[in-house]
Amino acid sequence: MRRIILCLLTLFVFYLSHAQEKQWGGKFEQLDTELPTPNEYRSGSGAPGHAYWQQKADYDIEVELDDKTQSITGKEKVTYYNNSPDNLKYLWVQLDQNVREQETNTLKVQQFAIQDSLPAKFAAQGLGITDYDGGFKIKSVTDANGKSLPYTINKTMMRIDLPQPLKSRESTSFGIEWRYNINDRMDLGGRSGLEYFPKDDNYLYTIAQFHPRMAVYDDYEGWQNKQFLGRGEFALTFGDFKVKITVPSDHIVASTGTLQNPKDVLTKEQQERLERAKKSFDKPVIIATQAEAIEREKKKSDKKSTWVFHAENVRDFAFASSRKFIWDAQAVKIGNKTPLAMSYYPKEGNPLWEQESTKAVKNTLETYSKYTIEYPYPVAISVHAASIGMEYPMICFNFGRPNEDGTYSDRTKYRMIGVIIHEVGHNFFPMIINSDERQWTWMDEGLNTFVQYRTEQEQYDNFPSRRGPAADIVDYMKGDKKYIRPIMTNSEQIMQFGNNAYAKPATALNILRETVMGPELFDAAFKEYAQRWAFKHPAPADFFRTMEDASAVDLDWFWRGWFYTTDHVDIAVDEVKWFTLRTEQSSVESKGKRVKKGDLSAKDGDKKAMDFSQGPEEFSLVETDPRYYGEFMNRVDDKAIMQKFEGKNLYQVRFKNEGGLVMPVIVEFTFKDGTKTTEKIPAEIWRYNEEEATKVFVFDKEVTNIVLDPKLETADTDVENNIFPRQEVPSEFDQFKDKKGK
């Protein structure tokens, strides 16, 4: 008996090692070797460690927008708090406007090819043929006493050398003066800039990255001073802002933070409307009307006004300014807070913006607060600007413009609502749950797109969501791997940016919620991650570990497959065998061929049975040999077990993993009487052999049809091998076939 057990164990170990050696490291190998070692700053549970720290940077800024020269002039006092255990000899400051300076690396590393016919605008952008003089013009860098500090500018980064090291738990202050020319987004693109309206000779300014900002110094990698090439966005430090914004006196300003001096910049009527909006929960109150905006457009004041805004515990600051702005606001009930959902838009955005923008802001705050944390800031603003979607704390800039006669299509409407939800949602990822966008785009774009999908589906009827449903990622997943990179790729090296950083991670999370974990476990774990890392700096390992820690679901196989590889899902029904119990209990001849008693395997040499037309194959159950009991003195009731199998139909199904990405196996069986049942098999079915798996299903009724993934919830890239019998293509796949052209 011992020899039999030893032989069986040897065979099992050989089988397991053979199956695993075909794959790099094994798809079910734990991620521990890939993730940073837990320490006192970041625990193995995914939570901040007991000694977690992060820096702080407070800003006192005065900035002026010149509407005649389209330029920004400013000065700031930065107070930097060193909460790290390290002494710092120098500080790194981000100069993101330098991505547009004449010697920018962005243009140098950009690939470009001449075509037979090339739009002039694209040629000018791609080759840098422009008169625009971009980048920060740094006037001075001084200490708290006004004494010059030595500094070095390296493209989009500036190092400030300190007279003596900044010790742990101490702070320092320094000042910077600068100016820059505002880019025309129509000509040059950009996350911020100006838009010109020729008909009334006015500008709409969306202003961001407008001041030198502290780079992040953290426990994870020290200074995050990776150069900005235009794609990887921003790693930023939390702090408090006091900002004075001087603009023409006939401008309306939208901004991060709370307006401190409404009496100085708003009319009495506008002040009254603003107060009324704070108590209006059912619909927006228009604070600056379209009629008022049209009057402001007609004449340009030479006077100036200064708008003062304060913002606490934010990682960035942005504003918008124009004499064209209409402004509306509505109160939103979030826990014990009532933030204002607000929209600013020119008349060119109406009637669509007045009807839909602030409603979308409200819907976003409500849904994201449900899945993450309650929205903590006093305002959330959507600003209308052409052909853009970009986010900052409390404010974002969004596209969606009707035709000149005010008409618009459903496509324009839903794209506008979608981008507003997405950009307002960025308040949570990464403005509050503050991941490093310069390194990991998916941690803000992917997580945000997932909750955007939840908002679209929960707040709107039949919303045509672009990203989230599993079937919509299929074309990308089955594409040429030369043009696909893993999600865990640095922002600047990603190929197919929208698919990689937005759609694939959002779809993965949707599948994780609906198919792998279930909504209850997923939602609790996702919310735990948001609460743990609100106003902190999470890294990928913190997300992966928290999702497992809060759910008791081992997800390393999922992270490894979806985030670290370019494998795709393609599970096939490779073979189906139908068995029924033979009534006699001895060796018998079966269709001219000897079959071992109790053997459920297919007959040697037979071709794969592709339908049930030949009827079931019989198998036998025999009494259990005493040697299988080992040292146990009691016995099972063999005859009772045999009776339970009488009249049963057993279906042995062999599944093949053609795509490489291991996933749960969802199998729908249709019975002879027309009824159906679905079996959901966890992904661990593949743990011993990642290429194929065999499973036996037992039913009282006869099966006529088998379908894998009947609701298209795993992103399976080939549905034609999901069915048995092969010649039947179930109606469940009709919509999928139409969308994918199969």
Automatic annotation (TrEMBL):
Residues 362-562 form the Peptidase M1 membrane alanine aminopeptidase domain. The keyword Hydrolase applies. One of its GO terms (molecular function) is metalloaminopeptidase activity. It holds the Pfam family Peptidase_M1. GO terms for cellular component: cytoplasm; extracellular space; membrane. Gene3D superfamilies: Neutral Protease Domain 2. The keyword Signal applies. InterPro entries: Peptidase_M1_aminopeptidases, Peptidase_M1_dom, Peptidase_M4/M1_CTD_sf. SUPFAM superfamilies: Metalloproteases ('zincins'), catalytic domain. One of its GO terms (biological process) is peptide catabolic process. Residues 1-19 form the signal peptide. This is Zn-dependent aminopeptidase. Residues 592-612 are annotated as: Disordered. Residues 597-610 have a biased composition (Basic and acidic residues). Keywords: Aminopeptidase, Hydrolase, Protease, Signal.
